[in-house]
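#lab-general

N.A. 3:47 PM
ok so I finally got the sequence cleaned up, no stray characters, all 573 residues accounted for. can someone with queue access submit it? mine expired

B.Y. 3:52 PM
send it over

N.A. 3:53 PM
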Amino acid sequence: MVGFEIGDVPFNPDGWGPMESTDSSVPILPNHSVNVPFAPFSRSDKLGRIADWTRSNYNNPNRQNNRNNNPADSAFDFTADDSFGGGLNADEDSTFRLVDGKPPPRPKFGPKWRFQNNRNQLPQRRDEEVEARKREAEKQRARRDRLYHANRSGGNNPRREAAVFKSSVDIQPEWNMLDQIPFSTFTKLSYNVPEPEDLLVCGSVESYDKTYDRTTPKNERRLERFKNRNFFKVTTTDDPIIRRLANEDKATVFATDSILSTLMCAPRSVYSWDIVVQRVGNKLFFDKRDGSQLDLLSVNETSQEPLPEAKDDINSAHSLSVEAAYINQNFSQQVLVRDGNKLTFEEPNPFASEGEEVASVGYRYRRWKLDNDTNLVVRCEVQSYIDVNNQKSFLTLNALNEFDPKYSGVDWRRKLDTQRGAVLATELKNNANKIAKWTAQAILASADMMKLGYVTRVHPRDHFNHVILAVVGYKPKEFAGQINLNTSNMWGIVKSIVDLCMKLGEGKYVLVKDPQKPQVRIYEVPADAFENDYVEEPLPEDEQVQPPVENGDSVVENGVGDEVESKEVKAEA
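B.Y. 4:20 PM
back already:
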């Protein structure tokens, strides 16, 4: 039987490990070759002595002050020991390097980085910028689409709803609210009416100057002022022709084109407006108050950018409305051939005195049959005419005005020549209600062409001097299709309002568009409303525009003096 032999284990009474031998030829351990060191077989396995405090500086009093201790001085490190193959591993250890897995540092973005020729980092930074711009453009596009669809659907703009708009008329406590109609019900209405008939045509018009069709921003024309020509904005019941037609029982409902177009385009409106309704016997009259907002033209009503709220600011909503009315009146007279030749209609201007110089305008009193019992008479206006194949074609003349390119984001002087469609699209977004009302008035008057002028300020801070940049013509019905203005829907709104008012008793009522919500309210008001104390609701003193001082000093700060002067051109009833 083969046994297991246990070798002798020498005992060292003087210290650790095997006993020391002075003879190098005698192996320390049996079966151990001479002069063969205990070299580790793997770098992770440290074989050899456990510790040796005799060769280290562990007891060195200066150790605490030596911050750069050599790792070879550790009592547990034998990599530099000759007896452990330190000389063999020294070269390999010196060449050993740990692989750094951390990502390389990102270059700092700055002027120095912009111009360095680092081909590996520059495209990465450029891609990040491109992606950031794409994300920002996508946000802007989504925002524009959301606001555009809100305007198209007749809803008020969310940003504009946040602004505090005031009612066009002060609601008195004794008024009785009868009904309120949301605009959402208006968009679903539809009604078709037959072709109208002309009952009477009054006034005289001058021919249109075709040279203005060739106007461009490079050969702009200065807008002239026509202070000697009188403009009339007479309400329905003050019109002598309408009174005569009412006495002759020509119709049961009477209105003007400005009042009727306000009703037709009500779903597009944002600002507050009001229309006075008078029921006399079996007849219905749609009127406006003296000094009503209907006599002015709104600017940037449906824009996503709010206008300044200060009344004395030349870019406030009220100041721009006065300026727009002033521009529109002067433009309608400047683009005419003023050689004294006029096309005179059946009767003269019913509002002008003898010898008085009046603006070129023709009044067409037209009648529509709404149903078997209801006929509607409307006073429509045309401003000019042109000869086409020896026939007279009537025109309506209106002007769009630019006050500051920063608000619209489109500079007309640069874009009208090359991107006229983009300019018109911006105006349709910012002034959807005003352009729709002009189109409705042209359709009511059966105008063959509507001319739109592009008028801008000479300088953004000069609101009294303007130039004409371009004049473009459109056919009203085709243009209505382009701006999504449905004629059947317009007449559906008028028919529903007329039917509602015909059910009311005799008296006076007022339709008020809510300043904050897309709806219209009907109030029953006293018979003497808007005649004495109700003529014009005064604003608080802190909101009124201060008049010029009496000592003759000119008040031109913020354009107040020019605004007062421009008000002189405003039409009077």
